[in-house]
Amino acid sequence: MPVHYERDAEGVVTLTMDMSGSANVMNAEYTEAMGEAVDRLEAERDGITGVVLTSAKKTFFAGGDLNVLIRVRPDNADEALSGVTGVKAQLRRLELLGKPVVAAINGAALGGGLEIALACHHRVVIDDDKIKLGLPEATLGLLPGGGGVTRMVRLLGLQAALPLLMEGRQLRPARALQAGFVDELATDRDDLIAKARAWIAANPAPRQPWDKPGFTIKDMRVGDPNVYALLGAAPAVLRKKTHGAFPAQEKIMAAAVEGALVDFDTALKIEGRYFLELASGQVAKNMITAFWFQLNEINAGGSRPSGVDRAKTTRVGVLGAGMMGAGIAEVSAKAGIEVVLKDVTLEAAEKGANGVPGITPTDSDADLAGCDLIIEAVFENRELKGKVLPAAEAAALPDAVIASNTSTLPITGLAAAVSDPEKFIGLHFFSPVQKMRLVEIIRGEKTSDETLAKAFDYVLQIGKTPIVVNDSRGFYTSRTFGTYVTEAVTMVSEGVKPALIENVARKAGMAVGPLAVSDEVTLSLQLKIRDQTLADDPDAAALGDHPAYKVIEELVGLGRTGKSGGAGFYEYPEGAKKFLWPELLTRYTRDDAGVSEQDVRDRLLFVQSLETIRCLDEGVLTSARDANIGSIFGFGFAPWSGGTLQFANSCGLAAFVERADYLADTYGERFRPPASLRERAARNEQF
Question: Which end of the chain is more exposed for a tag (fewer CB within 10 A), N or C?
Fold first, then answer.
């Protein structure tokens, strides 16, 4: 039975959820089984003293069935609304049973799982840091549609509930207890059930706070001027954060505030209508595709070679104790891996180690003995890398994987520095390493499946997300992100106002404006990369006359090398907020630039999407999942879009091609769709 119903001699009913599959999900099977259970509880009410709701799975409840939700469309929204309303009606009947109902939470309760628990009168959770509780729907472009918004606001108050709802926070049990939506912690399963039963015995006829006469939400007192001040400012604060690119957060705020001003059952209806509006929209489909289906495929090893045993890295040697090397060493050590951090001097290595437990600083290659993974993280200089790699390889284990953290230099060329190119691979981390989730794994021409598998396993071991790409200059992420920055600077050269470019980029959902990013990576470094590309690739001659690089050359010539140099596209006054260099307007901006805001937006987004498609055509990328997750986690491509390829899908490929042709005709051939895209659009075949 999907919901086991067991009543003991004391009249306590234990409902144990045990749906088909590895986790309990809110689908048709659940709805039917829970409906039957609630019917029976109501029929046997007089002989019942209380209800314990728990799970037979490792998790309590995984949430809604996203395979169903992703198929919700405007033309079937009424059917979907009926289903959501039915689920909420069952939970409402459960909390109005007139008997104590306790959620005995033995594992993760996320989304619909926590909504079920919130409909119970009391919540007890095993105190295990592996367990997460929360309503993460906002991270998938949705809102909690099973009563989560309505109950959380009434339980915690509007100001405390909104951050949990709009940010989709997932809390450990102790933190959830502190937040107020968990009532008790238990040491193990036996203690969990014992505490649930004890609460039932002590509370024979509980009522939810919102069902008691005179209930008011603590920070929503009618007539309180502070309330109106809060409600007046909140939408503006939200818009400043999201720039209007994330509809879920706006609808969550609307459902929370509007629902707080009416009775409970009306609030449930308001919540349901906003939920269906989001679920039937394109943004939710984009985000569910990327952050659920594709991310899960990656973490399950979708890009890992099959037939190779799982490997565990035990000792890693990191070459270079600068910002990147120190970060790689820290995340490795915190994952329980023994780390040797080497630099040219012991003092530099100790500074990079920063006292982190598990890191041994050194200036000697001999200390790399026993390492099964070497990661080179020195400056982007081919000669320097060629010097440090063979010495480290000689000291490490014979079968050690040798990796470079280069962000642009082709891996196949760097592999010439080691004795066995099959053991060589690229591990491109992103800065700051401690925060950035992505690692781009670059396979060279001779990299073996075993080496790739070991590298993939290491990335998962340190809690990062791996994507796998094939070797080329700039690989996928640096190459594609470079088009974003270059396109923005090109628009500056055309006379477009820099502030317009920056603001439109953020409104489009990009993590950071392209001119600000250009300053972060430094303008001088961009010129060095350009010069190295010109030296290595005869086909790249056009870069020499590129209008974007002419602007960068002029700024560098004026001593404006970027943020680290104190000035670039922005001014960086000490102790004050940065601002765009005013002289950009007099040097470059023209009133007759003739580039509309929509064109600015599309140029920034389309140029990245088209470069991704070229990477796919060239075999640099081999899957849409790696492209989408790599673009969002690696260089901050608009999360609402689901990634660079999903963005094209969501436009409709035929419409995307038409718009790209317009951009090509107007602004240059870099926007011209490749033949593969035209053929795919003709077949109506999405990425």
Answer: N
